[in-house]
Amino acid sequence: xxxxxxxxxxVSSVFITxxxxxxxxxxxxxxVHSSSPTREQPxxxxxxxxxxxxxxLYAQPTAAPCRRDSTRTPxxxxxxxxxxxxxxxxxxxxxxxxxxxxxxxxxxxxxxxPAGGMVNEPSAGPHCTDVCGFCRxxxxxxxxxxxxxxxxxxxxxxxxRQCHAPLAARLYYTKSGIPLCExxxxxxxxxxxxxxxxxxxxxxxxxxxxxxxxxFVCVTCRQPIGEQRFAQGEVGEVYCLQDYYRKYAPQCxxxxxxxxxxxxxxxxxxxxxxxxxxxxxxxxxEVCRVLLSPEPxxxxxxxxxxxxxxxxxxxxxxxxxxx
Length: 323
Hints:
With 323 residues, this protein is mainly β. Helix content is 9%, strand content 14%. Among the domains are: 1-24 and 35-49 and 125-188, Cysteine Rich Protein (Ribbon); 189-248, Cysteine Rich Protein. The chain is built from 4 helices and 12 strands. A two-stranded antiparallel sheet has the order 1-2. A two-stranded antiparallel ribbon has the order 3-4. It starts with 6 loop residues before the first strand and ends with a helix. Residues 130-191, 250-320 form the LIM zinc-binding domain. InterPro entries: Znf_LIM.
């Protein structure tokens, strides 16, 4: 039978299964016959095949004794009547021979495979076909092996790719699929642009920089921005939208209010004319108050003496001035 279920060790959110080797169990009434010795260094994986076989010896049944009628007096029975003669003793069953020995079954065949699992083929033999994920050489069954990062490694090959420290039975990290020890992983982390400390947990990337989530705040109100929209100042500082518009939004010359884009899409841009800023709906002729087009066409602005006018009002004022 196979040993108990393998225990799991959590290593940096990656489960590495370290399975105990298979071991033959013998009941008190069974006798072990021609069992092969176990390996001195069993593999530390549940996928290792086991070639140990056990052939139990079967107990030979003895012949049952012949039973006679216990009510009769032992001795010689004499009678002239043949009907009075005692019945003959029932023939004893012939002594059965030894039963046919069943075919030997390996331990891997006796153990029921898990649902969806793979069963080792008997023809695989004692040789291993796994290739080490680092040196690309075969991993024999006589050597310890480590299953990590969806690969198989020699115990000596599973090491930090920076300092080459062994990682067997140690806490390790992965970065771009490369195993690293804790010291090398900490050295590879980015510093926070705001506080300068190393970012060990969650990171926010914005403006080609890395931040701690609590450090990514508005420079004015100090409120965390998180995943909300934000704006960048003149020297790279981060603002929430409200504080950014309060500081940088232009003021409309017509209504004297800040030009702030709205959620419905209006005021998404500022109309510039004669060095002044206007809301889209405030960009009108100063005489007739008709809405002007921001494009330089017939419906656009025709300024005169620093005033924004439509074309008809512009022509009228020019004609009056010429009289």
